[in-house]
Amino acid sequence: MDTESIKGSRQRLHPFPDGWYVVEQSSRLPVGKLLERQWMGHEIVVWRDRSGAVCVADAICPHLGAHLGPRGGGTVSDDCLVCPFHGFRYDTTGRCVATPDGPPPRSAQLTRFEVAECNGFVFGWYHSRGEAPGWRPQEVSVGKRARSLAVLRLRAHPQTTTENSVDSAHLGHVHGYQELKQTAATEIEGPILSSSYAFTRNMLTPGLRLFKLSVEIAISVWGLGVSTVLIKGRGGLRVRQWVLATPVDGELIDLWLGMDLEAPPHERWLRGPLAALVRAILPRLFLHELVLEVRKDAQIWARQDYRPRPVFSGADRDLLRFRRYCEQFYAGS
């Protein structure tokens, strides 16, 4: 059987589950900057006005269909998106507020996506039937933080990437976790799933592989697009990990990986310039470790065949609960 036949024979999840999905970092969206993205199967444009309001909208002008992105000539002027074709101007509510040749048509309205901005990210709400959000991502970040971020484009699905949060059996086999212990039972409350573990593992970064991490982690999942992990280590170390899976086109996802240093180790020798150096290095080191871990998973995700009725083992109780939890994000499909 050739590659295309194998690809066509695979069972697939709906590519765009309902939920919140990252669009951009807040810091990379200053007032007046216009971005275009492929996001959840849509071509979108994104900009911020002087009041701080962010608009995420379909990138097609409702007038005569021009693309509104900067590569097509779209611009932002006086807080409004300006169509490159006929100069129609749209504010961040998506309403056409002016045209060069007369009053704006009342029906000229951009198709917008609801926005939530928190934890240093801009999220857009996607629902296959266009229903309004019944929940939002939670603000959990410490105010001042050192963050490192990477974005990987992978062949995967947000459900399979998020499933890692409860698939404890693969943590030892794929990632080499040792002394793995679940410290709090998996809990589900509406769109929020949480669980906690403790483990040790050797570092993956070349030159540091003899060093062993010993940590406790608290996982919070808010739908299939937003996962955060609070990592606690020795000496009061606190690092927050972000794993944000955003579908691009039904085949690929952008996996946003972030590390926030919330508290460095409280060691006596960490003072002055050395403390500043540690604050700069630790988020990058932890991010590099996370990227190395994700690349191991990515090899599996790229060729994974989704099984709607898998053969569960005795260790897969939380996986079964996770599958049931996921059903709510396909209600509109």
Helix- and strand-based class?
Answer: alpha+beta
Radius of gyration: 22 Å
Order of helices and strands: HEEEEEEEEEEEEHHEEEEEEHH
Strand content: 35-45%
| End-to-end Cα distance | 31 Å
Query: Regarding quaternary structure, how should these chains be classified?
Result: single chain
Unreliable spans are 1-9
Summed up, the helix count is: 5
Biggest β-sheet description:
7 strands, antiparallel
Average pLDDT across residues? 91
Shape: globular
Polypeptide structure, described:
The longest helix has 30 residues, at 272-301. The chain has 333 residues and is an alpha+beta fold. The chain starts with a helix and ends in a 7-residue tail after the last helix. The protein is globular and about 70 Å long. It has helices at residues 3-9, 158-162, 168-175, 272-301, 317-326; strands spanning 19-25, 35-39, 42-48, 54-58, 75-77, 80-82, 89-90, 96-98, 112-113, 115-118, 121-126, 146-155, 178-189, 192-202, 212-222, 227-232, 238-247, 252-263. Residues 1-9 have low confidence and may be disordered. The protein contains 5 helices and 18 strands. Helices cover 18% and strands 36% of the residues. Strand 2 and strand 3 form a beta hairpin. The strands form 4 sheets. The chain has a 7-stranded antiparallel beta sheet. A 4-stranded antiparallel beta sheet has the order 2-3-4-9, with no helix packed on it. It has a 4-stranded antiparallel beta sheet with strand order 5-6-7-8, with no helix packed on it.
